[in-house]
Amino acid sequence: MPQYICSQCNKEYDTITADGFCTNQPECEFGTGWLREKGSAKSADDSGLTPLEFGNEAGLCILMMDGSFSMNEPAFPESDYPGTRYKLVAMNAAGGIWSLKSMTHRESAYLALAVFGGEPKLVSIKSVEDIFKEHDTPEALADSIQKTLENETPDARFTNINSAVQLAYEIKQAFIGGDLSGFGGPTDFKPVIHPVVRGSEEREEFIDIPNVRALIYTDGEHNVTSAIKNPFAGDEQSVLITAFIGEKDAKGVSQMQGLACTCPKHGPANGFFLIDSPERVQTLRGIFRMASGASGFCSACLHVEQKGLEITEPESDLEEAGESGAGPAETGVDSENPSDKEESIVDTPAPQSETSSSQGT
Fold it and tell me: How far apart are CA 255 and CA 228, in angstroms?
């Protein structure tokens, strides 16, 4: 009769292994499961925790991309930046996604790509692994994204933020339910649930955040008759990140700010990003990478990811963080405490060299 059981995958053993750890790889991720005497402690199944078995667990990023006609205008008209907003987005979305190439379990991380104008359109839900199989280079991926924006956006004369956010929310809810088949995606999986400490001046609390992020950007404003509604606002923790491409005094800025989540770790900082100059291109790429890797929510999270534990933001980023209610000095990130680093929920890509991180630009 088996005397030992793995703390993670529940594989049973007659005798304990040489080092006391589970050897059931790849089903049990190396180093995460150890052997316990049967009956001595709760196993993963009855502990209330989700075991890390990537065979049926998944992560999801929903990219809701504005493909309206105005995106074909110069990205930064007052500068020497050579591309349109279509080009800007396509290159940096591809670059952000490409930085996940070193991620393990790429087959379990999914990207839902959608475009919107007057209405939204879900283009595809694919694993990161399949995306890399279909595109040999970040340039090829960028070209594919740009063609999708230019050719598949429904009624590109308009910008319907409501319908875009609603579709993103419906996809998110289906993901949490473990079944994306209604959207052409996988089924019979479990989203990884990541415990996060959400702090405030009054108290701290543990909350569970599903392994999903939704990112929506625009260069305009909601211009259909109905008022903006945000279904994510009713969740215990919104996972909606927003961005605006254009001048900081544009009307669409306040609309996108109002939709953005509050960061659970660095609140009251929120998940809104302003892309108003060529100097913010790396920020745009970082947003796509952060959303695709499900590794954060706000500018402080982004800079922790980009700079390790050293948050050194450009002046424009400092102003943005201040407007959101939390500058670097207020984020609560201790540069000497590694436990304060925001970790990726899907996986943590290996650090990229300057050469590899600049691909696709």
Answer: 8
β-pairing verdict for 12-13 and 109-116: unpaired
Q: Are residues 177 and 235 in the same domain?
A: yes
Supply the pLDDT for residue 165.
98
Q: Using CA atoms, how far apart are residues 168 and 120, in angstroms rounded to an integer? A: 9
Tokens representing residue 298 in the block: 């706000």
What tokens does 295 get? Answer: 């590794």
User: Do residue 129 and residue 249 come from a single domain?
Assistant: yes
Contact 294, 302 (CB under 8 A): no
Range of the domain at 24: 1-53
What is the radius of gyration, based on Cα positions, of the chain? 21
> Are 74 and 121 contained in the same domain?
yes
Contact 240, 230 (CB under 8 A): yes
Q: Is the link from the previous residue into 26 a cis peptide, with omega within 30 of 0?
A: yes
In this structure, are residues 113 and 148 in contact, taking their beta carbons and an 8 Å threshold? yes
Coil, strand or helix at 142: helix
The average pLDDT across 289-315 equals 71
Number of domain units in the chain: 2
Residues 104-144: tens digit of each pLDDT: 889 999 999 999 999 999 999 999 999 999 999 999 999 99
Distance CA 63, CA 43 (A): 37
Residue 146 near residue 86 (C-beta atoms within 8 A): yes
| Whole-angstrom distance, CA of residue 313 vs CA of residue 328 | 8
Helix, strand, or coil here: 110? Answer: strand
Assigned token pair, 268: 């009251």
Q: What is the CATH number of the domain that holds 107?
A: 3.40.50.410
β-sheet with 35-37: strand ranges across:
12-13, 4-6, 35-37
Burial class (CB in 10 A: 0-12, 13-18, 19+), 1: exposed
Residue whose structure tokens are 């009956």:
39
Residue 247 CA to residue 276 CA, distance in Å, equals 5
pTM (2 d.p.)? 0.72
- Cα separation, 134 vs 122, in Å, equals 18
The answer on 320 and 230 residing in a single domain is yes
